[in-house]
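Case study.
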Amino acid sequence: MAEQISYYAIVDDLSSREQPAGILRRIKHDAGERDEAFGSDLRWAPSSLLYEYERGDLENRFMPITEEEAGRIVERIRRSAGGEE
Amino acid sequence: MGIDRPDEDDAPTVEHDAPLARRDTPDGEPDSPAVDDHGTSPDSEADRVAYVTNFRADVVAEYAWAEAMPEFRATWEEHVRRYPHPERSRPTAHDDGSWSADGNRKLNPEQNAEVDRYSARFHEIGKNVIVPALRNVEAEDSCRHLVGLQHCFKDADRLKEKVADRLRAKPDRTPGQALEMIPDTVRFTLQYDNNSYTAGVRKDIERLEAQGFVQLESRGTWTSDQYKGINSRWEEPESRQSFEVQFHTRISYEAKELTHKAYERIRSTAEDHERTELKDFQRKVCAMIPVPPGATEIEDYRREKIDG
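After joint prediction, the assembly is written out as follows.
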């Protein structure tokens, strides 16, 4: 299997699909899978949030989005961290 | 490779009671099909047939589960042997008031102090208001009971891990917002017989509302291949303290406990290739859980935001 990446908008009580609280990606490949979130440190790093959701956690919802939409959320986080928002 | 650490507040507490203590053989009949576990009488021949059919299916499933448990435990022991994780270092509170843990999780002194204040608050409200009310709800029906009550308050370090994870993954959140949105700082589990599950859950939702609690959300995962049950989120209106109530059958609760360490590894320390095996383990365990009649018809609920 080639590497497959699925992107999700993280939506909680204070956010929406249009203005999500964050961005998560699930990467599947021949050897397994992992989840990463793009964080306040402006890098992709391991995240447990989607696994928690799959275990019944009620804090967040995960909306599948396109790579293009994901790119826009990443840019928004970058701008926000840089004080542009 | 990452490492594993038993999470004290979520530590498995499987009670190895006899799975068929109140059952007959798989071919047996219920003692009294005229009255079910909720004291309601099947009022037609069709109801009686359905009752007996469900009862038999329940007994067969319980035997299958009991037979599968040793194999699942052996599978897990073999997994741990193949993937030994060194012990994780303990989370550390530093002299300057900050806090750190594995996975590059950090809270600065102000954030750490805020979590400590919040922990003290939810312990007080939980102990004085929420736990007594849940006890009242439990006392209204002897056919199901609270389980795992000793773990109803989330461990302080696990809570700090969650806050640190959220502050990173949701960059606009303040520590206070992150804390308030974590649904299971106070949590309870009600456990039912398979055949009384659906009616029991519906009735207990009414009972929780009668105690004055406000339901914020519930989500059923009976069709999931990784975790089965219903989790719900509630609010104590005076303090606005939220808490979680999980609705399980005995087998779904045991399955949750049985897979707890696998889940811990999935969400924290497993490498990619191990994670696939862990999810496969959870899938096999979940496949053995009988879905209570009508459970998938309990609709998910989400309260509309009315106060921002």
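Observations recorded in class. Residues 45-82 of chain B form the longest helix (38 residues). The interface with chain A takes residues 103-104, 165-173, 177, 181-184, 217-219, 221, 224, 226-227, 229, 231-233, 244, 246, 263, 266-268, 271-276, 305 of chain B (CB under 8 Å). We will return to this complex in the next lecture.
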